[in-house]
Design goal:
alpha+beta, VC0467-like, 6 helices, about 35% strand
């Protein structure tokens, strides 16, 4: 399956419909870095059954689930947000989407009520590829590339995200969106 969209930081990667790896089945990954040395991103649609303030002991009360970002370094927490310059050292990774930044400032802004749930998304671990690995996986059709919209990160329900992005791509991708997750359901 050819992907006309160039893969780069700020793009989405959607697992092909029949990917068997349970880490990536129907995954939508937001690519935050793509260089010759490797690539990394976060799975946007795999919520865990724990809130960030339950996972991190010194975190202020905050009604925000943690998501499974990927199988690499699952003992680390990362975050994507729309807060831009409010959080120093955050890196722009897409249109109105930022990665990381000053963690203590984030906690302060949450405790002060300035930052509300729905503007920050937390991830345990990340998805990573070594040099050339993602390009190879794209060539064999493991991933479908798509453009990112901040609404995918903050407004579309996780369970619906994979199919929604494919539908918006249109053409034969909208047909793929309707393939049941378990072929026996067909």
């Amino acid at each position: 399956m050819q992907n006309p969209v160039k893969i780069d930081k700020g793009k989405l990667l959607l697992a092909e419909p029949f990917m068997l790896d349970p880490n990536f089945r129907r995954a939508v990954i937001f690519l935050c870095d793509h260089q010759n040395e490797g690539s990394m991103g976060f799975i946007l649609n795999k919520p865990l059954k724990i809130k960030v303030d339950e996972l991190i002991g010194d975190f202020p009360e905050f009604d925000s689930r943690v998501y499974f970002g990927g199988p690499v370094a699952t003992d680390t927490i990362h975050y994507l947000h729309q807060l831009g310059d409010l959080i120093e050292d955050s890196m722009p990774v897409g249109s109105n989407v930022y990665w990381g930044g000053n963690y203590e400032k984030l906690k302060f802004l949450i405790a002060s009520g300035v930052v509300k749930p729905g503007t920050v998304k937390f991830f345990a671990g990340y998805s990573g590829w070594s040099s050339g690995q993602l390009d190879e996986e794209m060539q064999i059709g493991s991933w479908i590339s798509a453009n990112m919209d901040p609404n995918y990160l903050f407004a579309v329900r996780s369970k619906e995200l994979w199919a929604k992005v494919l539908e918006i791509k249109g053409g034969h991708f909208s047909v793929l969106a309707s393939i049941p997750e378990h072929i026996s359901w067909n």
